[in-house]
Design goal:
By secondary structure, the protein is an alpha+beta fold. An 8-stranded mixed beta sheet has the order 29-30-32-31-33-34-35-36, with helices on both faces. A 4-stranded antiparallel beta sheet has the order 1-2-3-4, with no helix packed on it.
Length: 665
């Protein structure tokens, strides 16, 4: 079976409290990397000379112009290799589109106007497609088929269930789905016939082990089990003998993440950080039981997968906040020369069935995803999309830079920094400390409409990767365990000192902002370090850990222990969780606060935002509250992205921008 993904799963808590706002590229990354190599020099690293050269002549753009940019992702070749299936929000909401390999105008295959729809794959045998959607962001995704006549069929009907695609049978005769319809706490695996859609239960989960990947011969199912947010195991289930075996016994905390079986069904490829800081790719021989390290890097290798014909293996490296793609060919794994294109990083590589064509994306700080196709026979590369609004000159946007500063205890904190054009010692600008979700997420290089919009209107943005972030080592990733609201927050406060040292940031005008866990950090900053930041913008953030931990969706039930280990047990650690929950300390919040929330959020319930807003209002503090009735944990509709971004800018202009005028236009 060929899984349609290249990256391994991130930590349980990162999944729980991370979300794409709909504005950004990859701001949550899989797995962790190392701090030892990040900490070679104790001196703070400041932006380079090139990054400091301010350009006075640039244009400011409205939120409508930014939202006219199209977000696209995903790729699947049609059987005849003449079309590529992908996702686009060109209509204002995500739908499935197809575009000719030779170029042309994309054609919408689904036309939902209410619920975001995401293509999964073309069928291997014809032009039917699989796709998924939920209702208003409630995350109860179903899997559908679009028939050749355009009609749609729900393959996973029912209420309050969640289903996911798990891969194809290699000859295209069927595919696999996982669903929690039998028991909301556990996911079972089903095999579907590609012609009749008749299904067979092939794995019933009752032990907290999640089916993830199945070998092409159908004999083996790889199961993942979360022990804590930094420790996990892989089991193998034999579909013939119905025996289950642990294949990752280990001492101490270590993460083991399923990647894929090889095309010959002889080895399971997986990633692990056992015995080190970085995740490397390892193999388990299904016959001998021998485990070997197969591929490593100086950073995390976050996943690996095979092309449909088994000819190519693709790996993804998380290199200091950037994505690096590796492709090797054949049994000898000869490195494949990949096309080099200006303007960003290669991402999301997908091969056609013949292996002659490769679809991929290029994403840069000043350029959103654009879809390309490379022909290995002709050596030609063709750009198929132009996603950035033509009214926006990319020269008016800014390149991000990886910077580092030393925190209060000597820990080096890597961050992604955006300097607005025109900023100088004689024209100091306000700044935002931008906190990612997670807590085990990561702010990374790549296009973000929201950040570029703020920077274009005069705000410096520091995307902080405080301790606890992934991408910088196992030790760094676990350095926030049971310390939330304290050391990770203090890193954010120390970021103020770094920003002030640049010479063109006004230290009196620094705010904090973030979504999900980043929203919690925003509220924690205002409640526990009320003197630190001038304003806060909380986007669906946790205000009450007791409620959040007690309201974990049922399909994360088997991971509850891991969450309790990371954050705290709502019964045993009640006092600690009260002490670290901003809601119970809202009387300390004295700075202007903005809160943005999706009404259907299943991870951070709307009550979290309702109650913190009511509590802070009692302090006679300016509070602005924006709720979207048709969104969940992340905003997928352009109109909501535009409204939230514009209102955030208006809020910042009012309470953070200097006397002498606002930037909003």
């Amino acid at each position: 079976m060929k899984l349609m993904r290249h990256a391994i799963k991130i930590s349980t808590l990162s999944i729980l409290l991370s979300a794409a706002f709909g504005f950004s590229a990859l701001h949550a990354a899989p797995v962790a990397a190392d701090t030892s190599k990040d900490s070679k020099d104790s001196k703070d690293q400041k932006p380079s000379k090139q990054a400091r050269q301010a350009t006075q002549n640039y244009k400011r753009y409205s939120i409508e112009q930014f939202m006219a940019t199209t977000s696209i992702n995903g790729a699947s070749f049609s059987k005849d290799e003449k079309q590529i299936l992908f996702n686009s929000n060109e209509s204002g909401i995500f739908n499935a589109y197809t575009i000719a390999v030779q170029g042309g105008k994309p054609v919408a295959l689904t036309k939902s106007s209410t619920d975001s729809t995401y293509a999964i794959s073309y069928f291997y045998t014809d032009n039917r497609i699989l796709f998924t959607r939920d209702k208003g962001g409630d995350e109860n995704n179903h899997v559908y088929v679009r028939e050749l006549d355009g009609s749609e069929k729900d393959l996973t009907p029912g209420d309050k269930l969640k289903a996911e695609f798990a891969g194809w049978i290699n000859d295209g005769s069927g595919f696999y789905l996982v669903s929690n319809e039998r028991d909301p706490k556990y996911f079972d695996m089903y095999k579907y016939d590609a012609k009749t859609y008749a299904r067979t239960l092939i794995y019933k989960s009752e032990t907290g082990m999640n089916p993830d990947s199945i070998s092409d011969d159908g004999k083996w199912i790889a199961l993942g089990k979360t022990n804590t947010t930094s420790d996990s195991d892989i089991y193998l289930y034999n579909t013939v003998t119905r025996e289950t075996k642990l294949i990752t016994p280990h001492q101490g905390a270590a993460g083991h993440y399923i990647a894929n079986f090889d095309p010959a069904s002889k080895r399971l490829f997986y990633a692990s950080n056992a015995g080190g800081e970085f995740t490397s790719i390892r193999t388990y021989d299904l016959t001998s039981g021998i485990t070997k390290e197969h591929e490593k890097a100086d950073w995390d290798i976050t996943g690996t997968s095979f092309s449909q014909d088994g000819r190519f293996r693709i790996s993804v490296v998380n290199q200091d906040g950037s994505t690096v793609i590796r492709v090797v060919e054949g049994a000898a794994e000869k490195p494949v020369a990949l096309p080099k294109l200006p303007g960003g990083e290669m991402r999301g590589t997908t091969f056609s069935a013949s292996g002659n064509l490769m679809a991929f994306y290029v994403n840069g700080d000043r350029s959103p995803n654009n879809l390309y196709v490379h022909d290995f026979k002709t050596k030609q590369t063709r750009q198929l999309t132009q996603s950035l609004n033509k009214e926006i000159n990319p020269d008016d946007l800014v390149e991000a830079e990886v910077v580092r500063f030393t925190s209060f205890d000597g820990t080096v904190i890597p961050s992604i920094f955006y300097k607005p054009k025109g900023a100088s010692a004689n024209a100091k600008v306000p700044a935002i400390v931008y906190v990612h979700g997670g807590p085990g997420g990561q702010t990374r290089r790549g296009y973000s409409s929201q950040i570029q919009y703020l920077v274009n209107h005069g705000y410096a943005v520091l995307g902080i990767n405080n301790r606890g972030s992934s991408g910088y080592g196992k030790s760094f990733n676990t350095a926030d365990d049971r310390k939330h609201g304290r050391e990770p927050l203090w890193d954010c406060v120390e970021a103020k000192t770094y920003l002030a040292s640049l010479g063109y940031i006004d230290p009196a005008r620094i705010g904090i902002m973030g979504g999900s866990y980043g929203g919690y950090m925003t509220l924690a900053a205002l409640a526990f370090r009320p003197e630190a930041f001038k304003v806060g913008v909380d986007i669906f953030g946790v205000s009450n850990w007791l409620r959040t931990l007690e309201s974990i969706p049922p399909y994360w039930e088997e991971q509850r222990k891991a969450l309790y280990d990371e954050i705290g047990d709502p019964v045993k650690d009640k006092d600690f969780l009260i002490a670290t929950s901003p809601l119970f300390h809202a009387n300390e919040i004295r700075k202007p606060l903005m809160v943005v929330q999706g009404a259907n959020d299943p991870r951070v319930l709307k009550a979290e935002s309702d109650e913190i807003v009511d509590a802070v209002k009692k302090n006679k503090v300016p509070v602005e509250y924006v709720v979207f009735a048709d969104e969940g944990h992340g905003f997928s509709k352009k109109k909501n992205q535009a409204e939230s971004s514009e209102k955030i800018l208006q809020f910042l202009d009012k309470y953070l921008m200097p006397v002498g005028g606002t930037t909003t236009k």
